[in-house]
Specification:
four-stranded mixed β-sheet; 8 helices; globular; 25% helix
């Protein structure tokens, strides 16, 4: 079963819970898996696979005191041979109508497929377009020295290629389904190389733990790294706008609230940041503004055989403080709900 369930089951007091049901990637082992709570009583964990591919099914027998005395069951694999509940399917078809209309709305076009398939191995076109959209979004809201220096996001946030031709809202939501929001953070020029070192070494240089995603950067950034070097010494050079990092200045970066909260262990958990607009809305605006689009893949994160030249040895963490003029903006919750409901109704 999924390992995350075990501490939950172990921590419950007696009579609080006897069965945990779940639907998660990574489920394996006996069905059900039986563990003990704080008083040594049995708790049944029945977790099937993600996205409704398996339907958990278990029957429990209880005595007069509510204790389980027997059980039987197994996950049911749902395939195209599994009969649908026609009444429920009719309701789902009805519910889907407004969401399908929303998803079908054309917001722009591209002459090149916005590829996602290479995002987890290096630069990818859709990842670069998203990073550029993030930068432009914040740059349009600020002036002078309040403008951001660059934008970046985790490659794991990019989930699907957007094909050549018309681009719909549904395609954008499929590619960026998580409802992440924009944030602006500030890092010193002394600390920023440690962030990039963590990314190219897959090891956070502030806490020493694994970084679990690659990254995509906006067009002003060039990152050179040598994978042959030892972990912690792989970053060779970073330039922003063609200039080396300046230890003495502060850099404003646009990223995702997921990363600011410590997601993928790319950044130490930040605080005090403003939550701005949703990732998919930012990309929608960018596509509308630049259509018809003709983007090309650029070399932004580059492998080299060089050695470190501007990788700071600073050990202090970055700051989550925002520039003056930043303000908390209400996130359009309806957009996130649409994304979630479209996902559920697609099952």
């Amino acid at each position: 079963m999924f390992s995350a369930d075990f501490p939950t089951a172990n921590s419950y007091a007696p009579n609080a819970i006897i069965t945990l049901l779940g639907d998660m990637k990574g489920a394996e082992g006996k069905y059900p898996t039986i563990v003990n709570n704080t008083k040594g009583e049995e708790v049944f964990i029945a977790t099937s696979y993600r996205w409704g591919e398996y339907l958990g099914s278990i029957n429990l027998l209880f005595d007069k005191d509510g204790k389980i005395t027997g059980y039987h069951g197994a996950p049911i694999h749902l395939t195209n041979q599994t009969a649908q509940d026609q009444a429920l399917q009719a309701k789902i078809d009805e519910w889907r109508v407004p969401f399908e209309a929303f998803a079908a709305e054309v917001i722009g076009s591209t002459s090149a497929a916005l590829d996602q398939t290479k995002c987890k191995t290096g630069d990818c076109l859709l990842g670069q377009v998203m990073a550029d959209a993030m930068y432009e979004y914040r740059a349009n809201q600020t002036e002078g020295d309040k403008k951001p220096d660059f934008a970046f996001h985790n490659s794991g946030s990019v989930r699907a290629t957007i094909d050549e031709g018309d681009i719909t809202r549904g395609e954008v939501l499929t590619s960026f389904p998580f409802g992440n929001a924009m944030v602006e953070l500030t890092f010193s020029g002394a600390d920023l190389p440690k962030v990039f070192e963590g990314l190219v070494s897959a090891n956070n240089q502030f806490n020493g733990k694994e970084v679990s995603s690659l990254f995509q950067v906006s067009s002003a950034v060039r990152v050179e790294h040598n994978p042959a070097n030892e972990v912690g010494k792989r970053l060779v050079k970073v330039t922003i706008g063609g200039e080396d990092l300046d230890d003495a200045r502060e850099y404003r970066l646009v990223t995702l609230d997921f990363l600011a909260g410590g997601g993928d262990n790319i950044l130490e958990k930040q605080s005090g940041f403003a939550v701005l607009d949703l990732q998919e809305d930012v990309l929608n605006q960018y596509i509308k503004a630049h259509s018809p689009m003709s983007p090309t893949l650029q070399e932004r994160v580059v492998k080299t055989d060089g050695q470190a030249s501007n990788n700071s040895n600073s050990t202090s963490g970055g700051s989550g403080d925002q520039g003056s003029g930043s303000s908390i903006v209400a996130v359009p919750v309806w957009t996130a709900l649409v994304a979630g409901l479209m996902f559920v109704l697609a099952l």
